[in-house]
Write a structure and sequence with these properties.
- By secondary structure, the chain is an all-beta fold.
- It is built from one helix and 35 strands.
């Protein structure tokens, strides 16, 4: 995908036309991007000249008001029609998430979830109240707290990054765990085995999902269904199982075996709903945002968008339930953003706001931070819309019908379960396939596969003549009976 820039004239915002596997169905408008690629503020910046918009959380407040928190400790209200910013709260410790709760805002800080109240209705928070706490806090740079996000049952979920580096303390204190805010406002641990669970989001059914990032014990980027009593693979925070209140006790599987074998040896270990293969789909997933726009954002309602930090991109995820278990496919969606994509939020009119920050790591984007909005142009270009598992293979649906057959290359692979940092694809196999186009629905193809391997990732390379190539990756956790 390429981004083409139209020169700024006066106060007219930059307009980017995004070209991707989808063609040009989306227009990206720049709201505010760092003027210097080498620093968080321009070298000429003075207090009062603007804000370093290192977006770390977003929440829609109603009307034209979007709440933004930035990693330097502030919450701003942004009027999306007038492009006006108003400071709402400050003095926070690296806030990494926002949630509207009644008339208040909940914000995740390192030490707690804080309730921000504006009691005199002057547009400025005048009460900072502890909403929830209960995890250990260290001097580790990576001791992040994410959330809260609410599921379909009203549970407010919070996830805790592992400590890393010389100040790390993962022996106790729920580091690498996810949980909910209880009625007594205490953190209730629910699940373990996380490494850097920086993105949270519910699907249309109200089930919560989180993204993790490749690293120790995590061979590639996973998207998991978040629920009680399960283990997500990383063993560095399992010391907290000894604490009162742990919902899970188990013996983890040995390392240096294949992921399918590890899952068979440890019933608490659950596979990702979707693997995002390393570099093919990105290197560090961030936020999760469901598309619920009634067609205002294209033909993908019900699917998830997943931010990508290192590659400055957004990926798309289709999920289905097979035998009560989530699985599905991921697809490249948009790239070429000027900074690392950290947070995503839809407005009621179907506009996607993309919040960015390069703080702490580098990305393919050469700017330090930014906020952009993405709008559907009404054009639907050819792409893989979804892939579904069948008893004999898969059904593949394109975004629009095609008059001719497609060419398909299909292979599969899995990963090794190991404490190593990341891991290669193993047990690779190319498959023989039979592709049959549905005459009644020429956008859909039935794909009969010579072998279906449980807990393997199936890599689709679809070519539509003369040279339009589309890729997708399906994680086959459960075989269709």
């Amino acid at each position: 995908m390429r981004a083409f820039l139209r020169k700024t004239i006066g106060t007219v915002p930059l307009i980017f036309l995004i070209q991707s596997l989808l063609g040009e169905p989306y227009k990206v408008t720049d709201v505010l991007t760092a003027s210097s690629p080498n620093a968080s503020r321009d070298i000429k910046w003075n207090p009062g000249d603007g804000i370093p918009l290192e977006v770390s959380g977003m929440e829609w407040m109603g009307g034209n008001k979007l709440a933004l928190c930035i990693r330097k400790g502030e919450v701003w209200y942004f009027d999306t029609k007038e492009n006006r910013y108003e400071l709402f709260a400050s003095g926070l410790h690296e806030p990494l998430g926002l949630l509207k709760d009644g008339e208040d805002l909940l914000v995740a800080q390192r030490t707690e979830i804080t309730r921000l109240k504006d009691r005199d209705k002057d547009g400025i928070a005048d009460a900072y109240l502890t909403e929830s706490t209960g995890w250990s806090v260290s001097g580790s740079y990576h001791a992040y707290v994410y959330g809260p996000e609410v599921d379909g049952k009203g549970n407010k979920w919070v996830t805790l990054n592992l400590d890393m580096g010389e100040h790390a303390n993962n022996a106790t204190g729920w580091r690498g765990w996810g949980g909910i805010i209880g009625e007594d406002r205490k953190f209730i641990p629910m699940a373990c085995g996380m490494r850097s669970p920086s993105g949270l989001g519910a699907n249309l059914a109200g089930d919560m999902f989180f993204s993790d990032q490749q690293g120790t014990w995590i061979p590639a980027t996973p998207i998991y269904h978040l629920r009680k009593g399960v283990f997500y693979g990383n063993q560095e925070g399992l010391g907290s199982m000894k604490l009162p209140g742990s919902p899970i006790q188990f013996k983890p599987p040995p390392q240096n075996i294949s992921y399918p074998e590890a899952i068979k040896q440890c019933k608490e270990l659950v596979p990702p709903a979707v693997w995002l293969p390393y570099n093919k789909m990105g290197r560090s997933a961030t936020d999760i945002e469901v598309i619920d726009c009634k067609g205002k954002f294209g033909p993908f309602d019900g699917q998830l968008l997943v931010g990508e930090f290192t590659n400055s991109a957004i990926n798309r995820v289709f999920l289905e339930k097979v035998n009560g278990q989530y699985q599905g496919a991921c697809f490249p969606f948009m790239d070429g953003f000027p900074s690392a994509v950290l947070r995503l939020k839809f407005s009621p009119d179907g506009t996607l706001f993309v919040g960015m920050s390069n703080r702490g790591w580098s990305s393919l984007g050469n700017k330090s931070y930014g906020l952009q909005k993405v709008n559907f142009t009404g054009k639907v270009s050819l792409a893989i819309k979804e892939i579904r598992a069948t008893p004999t293979g898969f059904d593949l649906e394109l975004t629009k019908p095609v008059p001719n057959d497609i060419n398909l290359k299909l292979s599969s692979f899995t990963y090794r379960y190991s404490k190593s940092y990341g891991g290669p694809e193993i047990n690779k196999k190319s498959h023989k396939v039979e592709v049959v186009q549905n005459e009644a629905k020429p956008s859909t193809f039935s794909i009969h596969v010579d072998e279906l391997r449980q807990y393997y990732v199936y890599e689709f390379e679809v070519e539509y003549p003369p040279a339009h190539v589309m890729k997708g990756y399906y994680t086959l956790n459960s075989l269709v009976k």
